[in-house]
């Protein structure tokens, strides 16, 4: 029977604060970019980032957007347009967020709707659990773990049941880009 027992209690609790102070959003496949070229409305367009991580706009083909910030993409578009347009001024705004796979928060196991979520700065475990619809009736929420990719896949225990069923805000922790939340099934 001891072999069936959860090992999450041997894991350290997740740190409450996991803020990344210098965080800049990184564009990924599935994001939508609004590219505005000042004084050239015919060159301004809203475009999706394709699965290969590239975008195409008028006069600019096959520009790599994945893994860059919106400012870096704007400078790349300006550079490409400068061959055809005098002193282009470009602004890029991300209007639909998915983010790169490496930064998405994944929830697996006994969540009501297991899925991935785009990472947002200051996102907490409570935010994630609301987005996935909470726990199933069979979940062992207090034996859940966070696998933190940014720390070499270090594992932390989290108390999801205490957080969402009992309202224990001390169980709420900040998420980091790339975190995976694993919610096991409970034994009755």
Strand order of the largest sheet: 7-6-10-8-9
**Helical content (DSSP H or I, runs of 4+):** 10-25%
Number of strands: 10
Question: What is the global morphology?
Answer: elongated
- Taking all Cα atoms into account, the compactness measure Rg is 21 Å
Instruction: Enumerate how many helices there are, as a single number.
Output: 3
**Backbone structural class:** alpha+beta
The residue-averaged pLDDT reads 92
Which regions are unreliable across 5 or more consecutive residues at pLDDT < 50? 1-8
Distance between the termini: 13 Å
Tell me the β content. 25-35%
Largest sheet: 5 strands, mixed
In words, what does this structure look like?
The chain is α+β, with helices and mostly antiparallel strands. The chain has helices at 70-81, 125-131, 160-165; strands spanning 32-37, 45-48, 54-57, 60-64, 90-96, 105-109, 115-117, 144-148, 154-158, 180-183. The longest helix has 12 residues, at 70-81.
Topology:
Layout: E1 32-37, E2 45-48, E3 54-57, E4 60-64, H1 70-81, E5 90-96, E6 105-109, E7 115-117, H2 125-131, E8 144-148, E9 154-158, H3 160-165, E10 180-183
Parallel strand pairs: 6-10
Antiparallel strand pairs: 1-2, 1-5, 3-4, 6-7, 8-9, 8-10
